[in-house]
Design a protein that fits this description.
This protein is mainly alpha-helical. It is built from 3 helices and 2 strands; from the N terminus they run H-H-E-E-H. A two-stranded antiparallel sheet has the order 1-2.
Length: 136
């Protein structure tokens, strides 16, 4: 991204009063910054959850090849426990459902954050015009 200085015409277009940052403007800028940081963290969490779901789907596919009467190692915490196949499949199904719920919750949080960021962008660009950069 290339940064540039304002031209004298752009500076004149903002007007003398528009250059002044009021307390409420600074609060909005700070709020936008915090929301942007939270958005970044939630996006990373969402990627992790999608990867976990993908891994569980892959394991479920692999379990289709296992004999019905075999014991299957299943990781609980830091240890593996040998369990019958139907029980492992049930645990995987509940884990997948849990991750789906987590993904939906994170996506809902992201929607709310993005909506609030959009509102703040509109307000701040209306106030400062081209003299502020809120592009993320």
């Amino acid at each position: 991204m290339q940064r540039r200085m304002l031209t004298p015409e752009d500076e004149a277009a903002t007007g003398p009063e528009d250059g002044e940052v009021r307390r409420e403007d600074q609060d909005k800028i700070n709020r936008f910054s915090r929301l942007h940081q939270r958005e970044t963290l939630l996006e990373e969490e969402l990627k992790t959850k999608h990867k976990d779901k993908e891994d569980l789907d892959e394991v479920s596919t692999e379990l289709e090849l296992v004999d019905e009467d075999e014991l299957v190692p299943y990781k609980i915490g830091d240890s593996f426990v040998s369990l019958p196949l139907p029980e492992v499949q049930e645990l995987l199904t509940s884990s997948t459902a849990s991750i789906d719920e987590d993904i939906a919750a994170v996506e809902e949080k992201l929607r709310g954050i993005r909506e609030e960021m959009r509102e703040l962008k509109v307000a701040l660009y209306a106030r400062f015009g081209r003299s502020i950069n809120l592009e993320t």
